[in-house]
Write a structure and sequence with these properties.
By secondary structure, the protein is α/β, with parallel strands linked by helices. The protein folds into 4 domains: 157 residues, Chitobiase, domain 2 (2-Layer Sandwich), CATH 3.30.379; 271 residues, TIM Barrel (Alpha-Beta Barrel); 95 residues, Quinohemoprotein amine dehydrogenase alpha subunit, domain 2 (Lipocalin), CATH 2.40.128; 180 residues, no CATH class. Helix content is 36%, strand content 21%. The protein is built from 25 helices and 31 strands. Helix 21 packs parallel to helix 25. It is globular. The N terminus is likely disordered. The chain binds acetamide. Acetamide binds next to loops.
């Protein structure tokens, strides 16, 4: 089955083999741990390999790749532990031959050709690329292929034809909220190149910090950076480093909102008189540039000139998001200006401002990028609109002829499962469900309200239709277009569950629908949010999904992962990004058909290890360092084991808890165990996989053994980890969590025994177990015990006697 979804992209030399399941591929093929997965992979009928030794050399012809071949050789040394012999004088003897068809400018552009063909035979590897950029991408693929078996270090024989699906594959880094030193930025660039990401979107300014050292407006960095900013020389160094890796750098200076840092330095440019103090809190703040003040445009003109001097890219990001218009509304001068200019409202005023800014950028030969809010029909069509508001917004601007990139669903600062990011389709999708209710079908609609810990409640309605082929349904979140429901299940007692991906994450309602009343919770990622609601008399009208036509769809250039840094510091930067960003990179690079989540996770795990060894990413090192600090000791194994049972509370739950605790600001310590955790627990995901096998096949011994070993490990670890939790005030709040991990592991082991013996459970036992799981499902100290959901799945599988 697995292979079928891959048949577009994995073909073997013999036609027959291309339809076989993955496990039946020639030896070696089943473990091609490539990410992003290439457009086409052709394997020989009989597995062959090129066995490597330390004579390995790399020859390049057709363009000058500078020191890259030397760097690749040092990565091969890191991957093998070898010391390579000096490269031979005679380049025709090099094992890796790189042929570049066309010499182009070294600075990458949106239209750069990144295609390549990589052929590995038992005699060596040949990489043929259209341009230097294809060679860079192809070498990452080659390095991912390098592996070791019992006898040899080798590359499997293979032919790979590859090119990206989208030309704009970015990563937003935000040094404004918490500063990120240059060395950390450079390392992320290495990671990006490894993942074939090609745009660093550098969010250089925001309310809490101005990080771009201006020559003409030095008070910005002097007064609004706490001493943490990049000099022009440093920014040029980053650009040069990125250029060598074939990565564009698009700087963002956020106008006219998110301007508190400008307000501190140059209050006269703002829409209300100062003085202003540095903003330390997160969120959206009133300070906003004054569009009626000509000095504002002179300021932007000068800054654009300074930026253009440092950043060669054709695009410049002007932000434009989340403009709080309270200062505009309160200013008599600005209101009078709007009347004179015949601007109807604040959005009109922002559009006026953006048109002026766009002309300034054009004079500096720069095209404008901005967030959804800049969308306005008066702007020219060469701008790019980056969507954080979702596919509806992206579809609307694309349909109007505006180029766009998607970031909704790729916010890596929200801990979410990698699968959620991976499912993010990028192109707006048609509603894939029949919404008409046939004569012999029954439908029910329910409205719901889900309060959040910060901000307004989420409201909407959903409709379930009981049809010939089972249940189907759709959901209408207020203000959003209609979405289809997946995995509709009715449990005992009329309890309903279903799944739908939303802007908040993987959303799984678990609901009781009784006597016209709706209760229960929405599972957002791994956090339960209580909901209430009631039955509706009729099916709501809803909003039809917006899908641009094929021509307009071409306006969508790709997307960007975003790592906003409210909860990120340099010491945990790599934990937050890697390896998850590889999955986003795959969505942006690989054919749309590459969608198998289990296969993705399998490759992701291998790529995680590869990225540490070959690329030098620090996710493991950062985690070890944080756990060492928490344990006050190098003996961190108990804490690692305990951590493997936990996940950070997903979606923006942690931020919202900090808001409630008065810790929603730049000075809140990020020193909890929650900060050291990856977004999802691999151990628990694997436990869940094994449990699913076991639920389908109660006699599967290997699945049962895997579940038993994992649960016993967690159970037995409690005595070991408790002294560590007791010795550090930061860990103490987790003492009850450790006890719950033990009790849940014991419950799991008990259920496992009963399941293997084919026993049922009594209703009172079920209720007791359910209560224990419900108690353990609460967020504690910003973490969640991840095994609650897999164990709930097992409990629900039992026959109740
Ligand atoms: C954004 O998330 N405000 C771009």
């Amino acid at each position: 089955m697995l292979m079928l979804s891959f048949k577009h992209v994995v073909i073997t030399a013999s036609l027959l083999l291309s339809f076989l399941v993955r496990a039946e591929l020639p030896p070696g093929a089943e473990s091609l741990d490539l990410m992003p997965w290439p457009r086409q992979v052709v394997l020989p009928d009989v597995a062959q390999k090129w066995v490597l030794d330390n004579h390995l050399a790399i020859a390049v012809s057709g363009d000058d790749l500078g020191e890259m071949p030397t760097l690749w050789r040092s990565r091969i040394e890191r991957q093998t532990g070898w010391q390579l012999l000096p490269a031979p004088q005679d380049s025709t003897r090099a094992g890796i031959q790189i042929y570049i068809a066309k010499r182009v400018a070294a600075v990458p552009q949106l239209a750069s050709d990144e295609s390549y063909q990589l052929i590995v035979t038992p005699q060596g590897a040949t990489l043929a690329a259209a341009t230097r950029f294809g060679a860079l991408r192809g070498m990452e693929t080659l390095l991912q292929l390098l592996r070791r078996d019992g006898d040899n270090t080798f590359l499997p024989a293979v032919t790979i034809n590859d090119a990206p699906r989208f030309p704009w594959r970015g990563l937003l880094l935000d040094p404004a909220r918490h500063f990120l030193p240059v060395a950390d930025i450079l390392r992320q660039l290495d990671g990006m190149a490894a993942a074939k990401l090609n745009v660093l979107h550098w969010h250089l300014t925001d309310d809490q910090g101005w990080r771009f050292a201006s020559t003409h407006y030095p008070l910005l960095q002097q007064l609004a950076s706490d001493g943490n900013f990049y000099t022009p020389q440093q920014m040029k160094e980053v650009v040069a480093y990125a250029t060598r890796l074939g990565i564009r750098v698009v700087p963002e200076i956020d106008f006219p909102g998110h301007a508190s840092s400008i307000a501190v330095a140059y209050p006269a440019l703002l829409s209300a008189p100062g003085p202003y103090a540095m903003e330390r809190g997160w969120g959206v703040h009133p300070p906003t540039l004054d569009p009626s003040n000509e000095k504002v445009y002179a300021f932007i003109d000068t800054l654009t000139g300074e930026l253009a001097e440092i950043f060669p890219d054709a695009y410049l990001h002007i932000g434009g998001d989340e403009v709080d218009d309270s200062q505009w509304k309160q200013s008599k001068k600005i209101q009078a200006f709007m009347r004179r200019q015949q601007l109807a409202d604040s959005h009109g005023l922002q559009a006026y401002f953006n048109q002026r800014v766009e002309k300034i950028l054009a004079r500096h030969h720069r095209k404008m990028v901005g967030w959804d809010e800049i969308f306005h029909p008066d702007l020219p069509h060469n701008i790019v609109i980056q969507s954080w508001q979702g596919p509806d917004s992206l579809a609307a601007s694309a349909a109007q002829g505006y180029q766009g990139i998607l970031s909704t669903g790729f916010y890596l600062d929200q801990p979410q499962s990698t699968a959620y990011h991976y499912r993010n389709a990028i192109l707006p999708q048609t509603l894939d469900v029949e919404t008409q209710v046939a004569k012999d079908e029954k439908a029910q609609s329910w409205q719901f309200t889900m309060p959040r810990l910060k901000g307004s409640a989420v409201t909407g309605s959903f409709t379930l239709i009981d049809g010939e082929k089972g249940w189907r349904g759709f959901i209408d979140f207020s203000g959003k277009t209609r979405r289809a429901l997946r995995d509709i299940h009715w449990q005992r007692d009329g309890q309903l569950s279903f799944a739908v991906d939303t802007w908040m994450g993987d959303t799984q309602p678990v609901l009781n629908l009784q006597q016209g009343k709706l209760s229960g919770y929405f599972l957002l990622g791994n956090v339960r949010y209580p909901v209430s609601g009631s039955a509706l008399a009729a099916i709501p009208a809803g909003l039809p999904s917006q899908v641009p036509d094929q021509a307009a769809m071409k306006n969508i250039l790709g997307g960007e992962a975003a790592l906003w840094s409210e909860n990120v510091t340099p010491e945990i930067l790599d934990i937050k990004l890697w390896p998850r960003a590889f999955a986003v990179a795959e969505r942006l690079w690989s054919p749309q058909e590459v969608q198998d989540e289990a296969n993705m996770y399998q490759r992701l795990q291998a790529i995680d290890a590869w990225s540490v060894v070959s690329v030098g990413l620090q996710q493991q090192a950062e985690s070890s360092r944080l756990l060492t600090r928490l344990a006050n000791s190098n003996d961190i194994m108990p804490l690692q084991l305990f951590a493997s049972a936990l996940e950070p509370a997903q979606y923006y739950t942690r931020q919202h808890l900090k808001f409630q605790a008065g810790q929603y600001n730049q000075f809140a310590a990020l020193n909890r165990l929650a900060d050291a955790l990856p977004a999802e627990s691999n151990a628990t995901r694997q436990l869940d996989q094994q449990l699913q096998i076991l639920i389908a096949h109660p006699q599967d011994k290997s699945a049962a053994q895997a579940v038993r070993v994992q649960l016993a490990l967690w159970r037995n670890n409690t005595a070991w980890v408790q002294p560590l939790l007791a010795q550090n005030s930061v860990l103490k709040p987790l003492q009850p969590v450790a006890e719950q991990v033990q009790r849940l592991s014991e419950l799991g082991l008990m259920l496992l025994d009963k399941w293997q013996k084919g026993q049922g459970i009594s209703d009172s036992y079920r209720q007791l177990a359910q209560r224990q799981l419900d108690d353990a499902a609460l967020v504690q100290d910003e973490v969640v015990i991840a095994m609650v959901n897999p164990l709930t799945r097992l409990l629900n599988a039992f026959k109740v006697q």
